Amino acid sequence: MRKYEVIFIIKPVDEDTINSTIAKFENIVKNNGGNIDKVDRWGKKRLAYPVKDINEGFYCLFYITAEPKVVTELDRVMKITDEILKHMIVKEDE
User: Fold this and answer.
1) Which of 4, 29, 55, 82 reaches 20 to 30 Å from 76, CA-CA?
2) CA–CA distance, 81 with 91 (Å, rounded to integer)
3) pLDDT at 13
4) Is-contact 71 8, C-beta < 8 A?
5) Sequence-distant contacts of 16-25: CB under 8 A, at least 24 apart
6) How far apart are CA 22 and CA 52, in angstroms?
7) 50-75 per-position pLDDT tens digit
8) Which residues, other chains included, contact 90 with Cβ-Cβ below 8 Å and sequence gap of 6+?
9) Do the Cβ atoms of 36 and 26 come closer than 8 Å?
10) What percent of the chain has pLDDT above 70?
11) What angle do CA 67, 11, 40 make, to 5 degrees?
12) Phi, psi (rounded to 5 degrees) for 91
């Protein structure tokens, strides 16, 4: 299993939607055999440039340990989730 950092920006909506979106991605990792080492919620911040005419977003960072297939599924679901503005998955160095 490898270590990854997953950062994503959620559209600035109500707190229940933000919490359910984060829980959705936590469940994807756990249900596919991965472990979430740490969840770091940075909160609502101003974006460096507008994305889809939105100037603010809720930033969240996951530190996970998982197989590559888990990361592939997480990336696929993040791409089709409407609440996500941007996301990035990076493999940590050994």
Assistant:
1) 55
2) 22
3) 87
4) no
5) 17/83, 18/58, 18/83, 21/81, 21/83, 21/84, 22/60, 24/77, 24/81, 25/62, 25/74, 25/77, 25/78
6) 21
7) 988 999 999 999 999 999 999 999 99
8) 4, 5, 6, 7
9) yes
10) 100
11) 50
12) -80, 130
Q: From 33, 34, 24, select the one nearest 87 (Cα to Cα).
A: 24
| Widest distance between CA atoms in the chain | 38
Amino acid, res. 93? D
Tokens found for residue 2: 């490898």
**Burial class of residue 29 in the structure, from the number of CB atoms within 10 Å of its CB (0-12 exposed, 13-18 middle, 19+ buried):** buried
Q: How far is CA 51 from the centre of its chain?
A: 16
Helix axes 15-31, 68-80, angle to 10 degrees: 150
pLDDT at residue 70 in the model: 93
Using the CB atoms, write b or e for 35-53: b if 16+ within 10 Å: ebeeeeeeeeeeeeeeeee
